[in-house]
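ok trying again, last paste got cut off:
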Amino acid sequence: QVQLVESGGGLVQAGGSLRLSCEASGFTFSSYAMGWFRQAAGKEREVVAAISWSGGGTRYADSVKDRFTISRDNAKKQVWLQMNNLKPEDAAVYFCAADYRLNQRVSAARHDYDYWGQGTQVTVSS
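nice, full thing came through this time. structure:
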């Protein structure tokens, strides 16, 4: 059974930090690129960051560059999103997703992702 379980969300003041974790099971984690998406109330789900299966390729939304960092550990089957200098506009439900891809490309397209977690809420107070 495929599972992606996110954790680490919560309430933080603007300027603060959070580290989101995603634990994977039920599939060959090292064969998948991983992405973090977010969806704010009334808005489309958007990619925040993504990382290739090896960690050698990454991409970030312009809005989070230099503030967020994605990383992974294939042995632990985990991917993380370190979020620094959080802003009120970062508030959303954050989702972890897996994309079967064995090259170093990372996709920003939701339809490329095969598996999704249930999401974790991030709230940023101003």
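cool. The longest strand covers residues 92-100. The mean pLDDT is 97.
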